[in-house]
Amino acid sequence: MSAYLLSILIWLPIIGGAGILLFSKQGQEGAARTASLMLSLVMFVLSLRLWTGFDKQTAAMQFEEKAQWIKAFNINYHLGVDGISMPLIVLTTLLTVIVVIAGWEVIKTRVAQYFAAFLMMEGVMIGVFAAQDAMLFYLFWEVMLIPMFLIIGIWGGPNRIYATIKFFLYTLLGSLLMLVALLYLYNKSGGSFAISDYHALAMPMGVQKWIFLAFFMAFAVKVPMVPVHTWLPDAHVEAPTGGSVILAAIMLKMGGYGFLRFNLPITPDASHALAGYVIALSLIAVIYIAYVALVQGDMKKLIAYSSISHMGFVTLGFFVFNQTALEGAMVQMISHGFISGAMFLVVGVLYDRLHSRDIATYGGVATVMPKFAFFAVLFAMANAGLPGTSGFVGEFLVILGAFQFNAWVATLAALTLVLGAAYTLWMVKRVMFGPIKNEDVKTLVDLSSHEMLFMSILAVFTIAVGVWPNPLLDVMRTTLENLLSHVAVSKL
């Protein structure tokens, strides 16, 4: 099975998701839920084989599969994982299980179609992380938009059409620039779409900068970085809870993954030359967007802006070019997957009960929902970077690495620890504590067994990575060391 494990992880949920559509008739909702949960659990268990069978001592691709696909253009079906992509695949399978459990009681209409869309998207997202052929990567990257477009467009809020079109156009336009860069590299490399072949190309600085910018636009939109971030709050506000979870926890990470897979190794000199601009944009995201989050009255918008701010830490860690910051950025990506997913699920629990995301609607929730309040405060503290949670580890390492680069950059980045605490605690105080001003709050019912389950799972991972990050750091360290040594070597 290990020889074809990546293919199984990609195609099993896609084919299985299509099979779930057979339970679309009225009265078959239970079968659709059960089949979706079983398939997502199988996927998670299979993905653990990547972790247990991973060789931490090598930076080479592992679990590789390669077969000729389109001979005329030398396009291959080439898959593989390293210390960067493997943890992201495991995170994807875990979050899919969470989304299925979270939608178990909430989704009442088009149940089979809802779960099928998430399962198919799971397979495509794993394809993005596993693809080692540029055109295969591009195919998965573009197809990934379709299920998310449908999830927001069908199960989203009242302005879902506007949000979906904006989301689609932003990401599509960025991707077209990436396609142009890939076609140039194909010709430059003598007709190869193998991503690894592009690492050895010697290109003049001017060309490198254009290639860097083409990739940068595609990945900056996905992160998203300022100023191409405006699609994200709209998409989050209109998306159903499961859509927000996957969007924040997985899809944003693909932008960061793209920087590590394409920008840094393919255009190392341009990466160094343009690093100052990327760092500036990252700091704007960390500081300015945190202030924007402070004035939000909608909980989902606040968390959406919080995600942009936290992802600014990721891009900052990539472009200060040292091992500590790079490891911190990777931990931050994984940690943010747990925490942002949990925060959107917290909002979803309240929205399912009172159908409001406005902070002003609530107050005193902890009085009537003590179990829920415990998890909400835990995840809020993690979002603010409390030591002992995963949110602290990544941010601390990035700040530590940034100090080795420039003390002022590190000092400005560290402001997020203050600002993050400010907007997070402000929301928690007004929603969870104080007197009950809205009579509807008194009718709230505490967590159901399904809600307790997914909250507990995310809480365990959030604390586990915060207390013991070594297993995560160990699997990515050799790959990141190799990447850093490659970026340090001039290709001019």
Report on the architecture of this protein.
- The protein is mainly alpha-helical and 492 residues long.
- It has 21 helices and 2 strands.
- The chain has helices at 5-20, 29-52, 85-102, 111-130, 134-143, 145-155, 160-188, 195-198, 205-222, 231-238, 241-266, 268-273, 275-294, 299-318, 323-354, 365-368, 370-383, 390-405, 407-432, 449-467, 470-487; strands at residues 62-70, 75-81.
- α13 (275-294) packs antiparallel against α14.
- The longest helix has 32 residues, at 323-354.
List the helices and strands and how they pair.
Layout: H1 5-20, H2 29-52, E1 62-70, E2 75-81, H3 85-102, H4 111-130, H5 134-143, H6 145-155, H7 160-188, H8 195-198, H9 205-222, H10 231-238, H11 241-266, H12 268-273, H13 275-294, H14 299-318, H15 323-354, H16 365-368, H17 370-383, H18 390-405, H19 407-432, H20 449-467, H21 470-487
Antiparallel strand pairs: 1-2
Helix pairs in contact: 1-2, 1-4, 2-3, 2-4, 3-4, 3-11, 3-15, 4-5, 4-6, 4-11, 5-7, 6-7, 7-9, 7-10, 9-11, 10-14, 11-14, 11-15, 13-14, 13-19, 14-15, 14-18, 14-19, 15-17, 15-18, 15-20, 15-21, 17-19, 17-20, 18-19, 18-20
What proportion of the residues form beta strands (DSSP E)?
under 5%
- Determine the mean pLDDT: 91
The strand count comes to: 2
How many helices in DSSP terms? 21
Helical content stands at: over 70%
Major sheet strand order: 1-2
Model regions low in confidence, pLDDT < 50 over at least 5 residues: none
Biggest sheet statistics: 2 strands, antiparallel
Q: What is the 3D form?
A: globular
Q: How many angstroms separate the termini?
A: 43 Å
- Radius of gyration of CA atoms, rounded to a whole number: 22 Å
Instruction: Give the helix/strand class.
Output: mainly alpha
> What is the H-and-E element order?
HHEEHHHHHHHHHHHHHHHHHHH
